[in-house]
Amino acid sequence: MWKVVPVSVIGTSHEKTDIPCQDCCDFLRVISGEETVLLVALADGAGSAALSHIGSFEAVHHLLSIASQANLAPSEISKEQIREWMGKVLQHFATVAEREKTTVAQLACTLLFGIVGKSDAIFCQIGDGAWVVEKDGDLIPITWPQNGEFANITTFITSDGALDTMQFERLTGTVAALAGFTDGLQALALSFSTRTAHAPFFKPMFASVQNCKDETSLIAPLQAFLASEDITNRTDDDKTLVLACRCNTESD
Amino acid sequence: MTTKGVGWSIGVRGLRFGISPAGRHYVSVGIPGLGLYWTKYLVGPDTTKHWRSISNMEQVPFDAGKIGFANNPEPRCASLLILDISSSMSGQPINELQAGLTLYRDELAADTLARKRVEVAIVTFGGLVEVIQQFATAESFSSPVLEPKGDTPMGEALVTSLKLLEDRKSEYRQNGIQFYRPWVFLITDGGPTDANSQFWSDAKEKIRQGEEQKKFSFFAVGVEGADMDRLKELSPTRTPLKLKGLRFRDLFQWLSNSQQSVSQSKPGDTVPLSNPVAPNGWAEI
Question: How far is A126 from chain B (nearest CA, A)?
């Protein structure tokens, strides 16, 4: 069983200009056969796309619903399968665009997706942000922000050929904890020169989640932390962080 | 797929949604597509303030004093200035160019982010080609003194400059420094005196490739007397601009403003630059 703390917080630059929070995240725990499978999705809407807050919301929830209905264990899921799901999200965008009387491009967002079972896991993403996992005591940045050559450029699921750029990583073994985050946090959470996850960032947070009795009590504090000046002095962007730790009791 | 279908899928054949230690809170979590998310209303953009106020009453499991942040270098925006200081620039033109450069440095230094992110290098050509300023942020470069002399080896200056830029980008990559698309700015009042050399054809080819592959943005600016046809050879896609009079200060003000915007942009942002050829702008075509 998993304790999950999902939080998206608006950036100060968005507050100033009255732009809504364009990040979104959510998760599901599904029972597949004998194991509990954790599904986590995050999206970061493009600043230049007028309705990207709708795009990120729709992408996250549509992907979760498709994947939960398929009800597959991670070992049964191929890269092709995920591409197909991402493709369905894009098809869904066409419907959403019609409903919102806009174009698919105005829904542009990144999309990160994690599927974690008992002894294996899959992490994938289109665009920036990243996944970090803790396994056998090691912190592993299992994916890396996809920024192309320049810092202000990334791929969105609506970009041409986006599905071909999808990162897909399969991990065998037991994931003890994981974190997914959008680009607003990547400069605080990752060390770019060493291409590593910054342990002092993740370890205390994983410990808080691991040690809490009821993880829902951590949502407000995490939200407050991400909105605090310690963070906003370093990044004015929207920030999403999903923390998840495996509980010791599998009977849950 | 309809949202209704998902709602009904609870408990169907092997699929059920997990329930957390917090019990019923999470029942609604398991219905995607409907927006019936317990976490949904917690993480919504409108509730930030609400949560801030609540969190004051609780213990602090996420303490900034205990959580460390990675110390990454600021992303950089390279700005390469290639300046004609041949003898024809003597007098008022060089004085105005000098004043423009000083203004540019001051403007960048006054912007808290730009002074850490915009890196300027200056290459001059007048008789010979000189790198008078290696890439440095506004905090650490002083406006150089320009002394007009000699002819106009523009091709060689361009080749030298673009090599300088490539080297800098390699350093960025080696050190894990993210960067924005570099700016290359050529300012001249004449035409190349090395147009028949390998330098000129190399320069044309490198700029063409650089623009095509979006490695950098190249701007050519002609001061009164410049050979605009030659400049068009360098920049067939982005039309070379002609400086109105000696409005170097307006040009550098524009450059500084534009680079401040770009160096603060995030993925997906469109960065609108003001049009330099607008009636109140510094250039004409």
Answer: 13
What is the pairing mode between strands A120-126 and A130-135?
unpaired
Where along chain B do its domains lie?
Answer: 3-55, 77-265+274-284
Report in angstroms the alpha-carbon separations of A44 from A58, A184, B187.
11, 9, 40
CB neighbourhood size of B257 (10 A): 15
Phi-psi region of B29 (alpha: psi -120 to 50; beta: other; left: phi over 0): alpha
- CA angle A220/A226/A227 to nearest 5° reads 90
Q: Would you call B70 and A191 a contact, using CB atoms and an 8 Å cutoff?
A: yes
Strands A177-181 and A167-172: unpaired
Q: Measure the CA angle with vertex B151, ends B149 and B153; round to 5°.
A: 120
Counting other chains too, the contacts that B8-14 makes at CB distance below 8 Å and 24 or more residues apart are B9/A68, B9/A69, B13/A71, B14/A31, B14/A32, B14/A33, B14/A71
| CA distance to partner chain A, nearest, from residue B82 (Å) | 22
Which residues, at least 6 apart from B110, have a Cβ–Cβ distance to it below 8 Å? Answer: none
| C-beta separation of B124 from B146 below 8 A | yes
Note whether B64 contacts A: Cβ–Cβ < 8 A: yes
Q: Is the pTM of this model over 0.80?
A: no
Give the SS3 label for residue A103: coil
On whether any CB of chain A is under 8 Å from the CB of B25, the answer is yes
Chain B positions touching A212 (Cβ under 8 A) are: 61
What are the pLDDT digits (tens) for B114-138? Answer: 888 999 999 999 999 999 999 999 8
Q: How far is A142 from chain B (nearest CA, A)?
A: 17
Q: Do B67 and A225 touch (CB under 8 A)?
A: yes
Domains of chain A are: 2-246 (3.60.40.10)
CATH of domain B77-265+274-284: 3.40.50.410
Which residues have CB under 8 Å from A237's CB, separation 6+? A11, A13, A14, A182, A183, A184, B266
Count CA atoms closer than 13 A to A70's CA, side-chain side. 20
Q: Is the pLDDT of residue B181 over 50?
A: yes
Pairing outcome for strands A120-126 and A167-172:
antiparallel
Quote ipTM for the complex: 0.89
Q: If contacts are CB pairs under 8 Å, which of residues 80-139 in chain A contact chain B?
A: 108, 110, 127-128
State how far the alpha carbon of B91 is from the alpha carbons of A136, A236, B96, B126, in Å: 71, 46, 9, 14
Rounded CA gap, A194 and A190, in Å?
A: 9
Q: What is the pLDDT of residues B218-272, one digit of tens each?
A: 999 999 999 999 999 998 888 999 999 989 999 999 998 888 888 878 787 777 7
CA–CA separation, B56 and B60 (whole Å)? 9
- For the cut 80, the answer to whether the pLDDT of residue B22 exceeds it is no
